[in-house]
Design a protein that fits this description.
Beta-Lactamase, five-stranded antiparallel β-sheet, Helicase, Ruva Protein, domain 3
Length: about 475
């Protein structure tokens, strides 16, 4: 009885010799793709299954680098290629197991595959890397069918955290799914609180870039100079306080997705820099002359009417159309009020699980108030209203008396924006200059977002900064500024 692996290997080799089976015949017969990388990182062997998976013959593949077939955003090729320089130790064996990857075939399609790789190393050194490739398309198709069935059994009313059975929300779900299957730049528009960030997250999580960074930037919350450094990074000495080099969000999101929220707030100068990186994938850090490249998929969001801003020449037309390759509008809650009961049920279930309170739902009277309220703050306001009710309701069902006062009276102090073809600017409440107390209250109300304060008052963000400076108000909230 042979107990060692070496003994079993000798039996296998003896069988091959006895049956006159060559290694070439084995490679040609295997259903899995097999390739070998030379120590220099080029493809040195390519079997018939690899040709079936990719559409490329061995003569076309031999001599190409491992990155030749790499799909955008896929790091599998780098992991496999790294084995060429990785020493093998008991703690870190030179191998890659079950790496989900995507290859670009001759037709330009991305083929999902599963890769395993092993270093070919003996006492004489490294001879290359052996890679086996399993075509994952049947599995991916089955996963999609299971997801579709799950969605059907759930009534199709839940999609990556978003909830809605109405026709308008089903259209949103469909568009998010289409956006996720592409690499197109997406512009998400809609009033505040409609779920633009949630939709952006869903696009990333269902895209080929899932597993890579998803980086968020609120463009309206930062001054222009700060935003430039935040997006592109800076080098040491670029400005006062730049004591070391720092990478920006475009570098941090390389291979993944960058979500630019409140894109309508960026200055004309910043719009030019954004246009360049979107078109060419190139940028320079602040204070640097070295051109850097990045592979980033950009999703942008706004609650403003960018088309009207283009007409008013406050937003670049070329940037607008570069961002709006695939537009998705998130509807106001009053446009799909039929989804309110389902949203309420979801919020109640989540809060009950989080708080441990024995609250089971909302009474008929309470639900009627929720259904007929206009929801100027949209889904976010509805979620906050249910959370308020959880604080005051001891147990059982949420009655009308446990809802916020504006729900009980059926009125709202906030003006409603008209239903737009694209997002409209937030209504302005006043035009006079606020005093210090009013300005501080506005900053607190708007989470210290100067652009939002400017829209509320009817002035530019720069004017808000000047008022803050005149009143001696710090540029950051007290808990961030050290006060």
């Amino acid at each position: 009885m042979v107990s060692s692996g070496c003994g079993r290997l000798r039996i296998g080799v003896a069988w091959m010799k006895a049956m006159d089976v060559s290694a070439e015949l084995l490679l040609a017969t295997m259903a899995e793709g097999v390739l070998v990388l030379t120590p220099g990182g080029d493809i040195g062997l390519w079997n018939a299954a690899m040709s079936e998976i990719t559409g490329y013959a061995a003569a076309e593949a031999i001599g190409q680098p491992i990155s030749w077939l790499r799909a955008p955003g896929c790091a599998g090729a780098e992991r496999v290629g790294a084995l060429l320089g990785a020493p093998s130790t008991p703690e870190h064996p030179a191998c890659v197991n079950g790496c989900e990857c995507r290859l670009v075939n001759r037709a330009g399609e991305q083929v999902p595959v599963l890769m395993n790789a092993r270093s070919l190393r003996d006492e004489n050194g490294l001879h290359g890397v052996l890679v086996t490739v399993v075509d994952f398309r049947p599995v991916a198709t089955l996963q999609a069918e299971v997801a579709d069935l799950r969605n059907r059994f759930a009534g199709g009313d839940r999609f990556e955290g978003m909830v809605g059975r109405s026709r308008i929300m089903q259209e949103v779900f469909r568009n998010v799914e289409l956006a996720a299957s592409s690499e197109a730049t997406v512009l998400l528009s809609g009033e505040s609180g409609t779920g633009k960030e949630m939709a952006a997250t869903a696009i990333h999580e269902r895209s080929a870039r899932k597993g890579h960074p998803f980086v968020r930037v609120n463009c309206g919350a930062l001054a222009e100079s700060v935003l430039e450094s935040e997006l592109f990074g800076h080098v040491r000495g670029a400005f006062t306080g730049a004591v070391r080099d720092r990478i920006g969000r475009f570098e941090a999101a390389d291979g993944g997705t960058l979500f630019l929220d409140e894109i309508g707030e960026v200055s004309p100068g910043m719009q030019v820099r954004l246009l360049r990186v979107l078109q060419e994938g190139e940028f320079e850090r602040v204070g640097d002359t070295e051109t850097r490249r990045t592979d980033v998929r950009v999703l942008a969001a706004t609650n403003r009417d960018l088309q009207a801003m283009v007409a008013a020449r406050t937003f670049r037309e070329d940037l607008y159309y570069r961002l709006r390759v695939f537009p998705i509008r998130l509807p106001a809650l009053r446009e799909h009020s039929a989804d309110v009961p389902m949203l309420v049920e979801t919020f109640v279930e989540n809060l009950a699980a989080r708080t441990g309170k024995a609250i089971t739902g909302v009474t008929a009277e309470g639900m009627a108030a929720l259904r007929h309220y206009p929801w100027p703050g949209n889904v976010r306001e509805l979620a906050n209203a249910i959370e308020y009710a959880f604080v005051v309701c001891p147990k059982g069902s949420i009655e009308l008396g446990y809802l916020p006062e504006e729900l009980r009276s059926g009125t709202t102090t906030m003006p409603l924006a008209p239903v737009p073809a694209s997002a409209s600017p937030v209504p302005r409440r006043r035009r006079r200059r606020p005093n210090e107390a009013e300005l501080r209250a506005l900053l607190e109300e708007c989470d210290w977002n100067k652009a939002e304060v400017g829209r509320q008052v009817g002035v530019s963000r720069t004017a808000v900064w000047k008022w803050m400076k005149a009143h001696g108000i710090p540029m950051a909230p007290p808990d961030e500024s050290g006060e």
